[in-house]
Design brief:
By secondary structure, this protein is an alpha/beta fold. It contains 9 helices and 10 strands. The N and C termini lie far apart (about 90 Å). It comes from Gimibacter soli.
């Protein structure tokens, strides 16, 4: 009887080892098919319930690679901290300046930060110096990131940086600031939503002039594994060559950019 239980115990232990090995290999295979990405919760680029215009580019790129994105949304800036500090995070998107030593990165998008003012102003800013005496709001770090802004902000009547870009639209629509410095797509998205809530036609951003007084800001996609980064980069080239990226950019342009009068 003792030998029987001994043999049975050995068999059960062997079965458990096989089961553990199968579970481990299945989990590893699942991990190989996914990519954990830290992304900023920054409407309309990335949205809590999906559907962000930049998220669509990420999904299309990874689909070309046969990878499933596992997107972790966090406040802008904190998503980069997660990439640097959390071993489970394999990549990060919408990184304005790739940290030194990152194994792989490539530019996959760009933003047009602009000076946005009410259209009925008598003077339209053509240079940053034209903002002297104005009340200006922008996003955190703008004075450091955007060329020339740090040098002239001392001439503004007031200058504040607010992370919640919904507040930018509210402030200028309420007349509490004279100018917003922000990406025009993000400003348009929030302003049109606020306009629609106020009973307007959903094109409230059409009340504003947009002056592109800064060079485009490039967004990097960064990776901890250089081989994975190179693979995803190649897939990005593929969706650009086959027209998928162009279709996504055109959908974005129709959704937001068409409201502006050049």
């Amino acid at each position: 009887m003792g030998k029987w239980w001994s043999k049975k115990g050995q068999a059960l232990r062997g079965l458990r080892l096989l089961l553990c090995a199968w579970l481990f290999s299945s989990a590893a295979a699942a991990d190989e098919d996914s990519l954990v990405i830290a992304a900023p919760l920054l409407f309309p680029l990335y949205e809590r319930n999906g559907g962000g215009v930049e998220e669509a580019i990420v999904i299309a790129t990874l689909a070309e690679c046969g990878l499933k994105p596992v997107i972790q949304l966090q406040p802008f800036g904190r998503h980069l901290e997660s990439f640097l500090q959390d071993e489970a995070v394999e990549a990060a998107v919408t990184v304005i300046s790739a940290p030194a030593g990152v194994p792989y990165s490539f530019i996959y998008s760009s933003y047009q930060n602009s000076v946005i003012t009410l259209r009925d102003r008598t003077t339209k800013p053509e240079h940053l110096s034209d903002l002297a005496g104005m009340r200006v709001v922008s996003f955190p770090g703008a004075a450091r990131i955007l060329p020339g802004l740090g040098a002239v902000r001392g001439s503004f009547a007031t200058y504040i940086e607010i992370a919640n870009q919904d507040a930018h639209s509210r402030l200028i629509m309420a007349g509490r600031v004279d100018a917003v410095i922000a990406d025009k797509l993000i400003f348009a998205a929030y302003t049109n939503i606020l306009g629609a809530q106020a009973g307007q036609d959903g094109q409230a951003a059409g009340r504003f002039d947009v002056a592109a007084l800064f060079p485009e800001t490039q967004a990097h996609w960064i990776f901890k594994d250089a081989a994975v980064g190179a693979r995803v980069h190649q897939c990005f080239h593929t969706i650009r060559a086959n027209g998928i990226l162009g279709q996504l950019l055109e959908e974005r342009r129709r959704r937001f950019f068409g409201i502006y009068v050049k």
